[in-house]
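Here is one chain, start to finish.
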Amino acid sequence: MRLILGDVIFWIAAVSCLVAQVAIVRSTILPHVPGPGSERVPRPRTGPEVAWVLLPACVLAGVFALTWREMHEPRVAPTAQVSTAVKRPAP
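Its structure:
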């Protein structure tokens, strides 16, 4: 895959995941406001509930950072190792 095409695919995936994660975090942290006539009362979010939403977002950011680094790390061709052992003919 060409590097430019790989960059485009990477950024499309990164932006898509960012939009999804922002929506998930927003829906978890901001309380739902019920409409008029609704008896549902919004409950406060607990620390572990917010942590379980933020943890995957942080892990995903780490995966994207590692992927970006791997995509743009300079490649070094493997060098052939020359054997210095002397082969003796069989008796």
